[in-house]
Predict the structure.
Amino acid sequence: MATLRPLNPTLWRTCRVLSGHMRLKLLRLLHDAPGQNVSALAEGVGIGISDASQELRRIQSRGLLQAQRQGVHLIYRLGADPQVPSAAPLLKALKSALAGLPPEQDAAMSPIAAGFAHPRRIAIAKVLMKAPLVSMDLRMATRIPPGPLSLHLDTLEAGGWVRRNKRMLSFHVPPHPLAKALVGLLPSS
């Protein structure tokens, strides 16, 4: 019997999935009413079955859903794929947020996840975690051109990851369970 090699989906791709509003609605629905098929989930969030199926596959590809066949139906539940090391801490944070916060606040997870939904934004965060910098020094440290750097900083700021004080940029962890889990998953190199 062959041993399974752990899968390691990239953090930025996982964050890209978690930044989608419809995927967050599906996660909320699965948290509040686990064990549903695609048809019920599609109806619950108001999208077509094909769209729901695609969104569920995206979430499942990040190791955050488990699907089990029951007759002709595929039943989905929140569950960490043991082959994806990042899935368990992320799912724990998601469940904590979904259990502790009202559904109206689910949308707050989108900009938090979007902050790390690009490899350059992760690089910026890692540099700013070491020390606050002015924009020019950050540009030199990351080798990101001024235009893209500004756009990435805007996204990080919108998610609560970066704060500006005059010209100084500093890293900040938003007070949300998802943000705390994401910081713990940042690659060390």
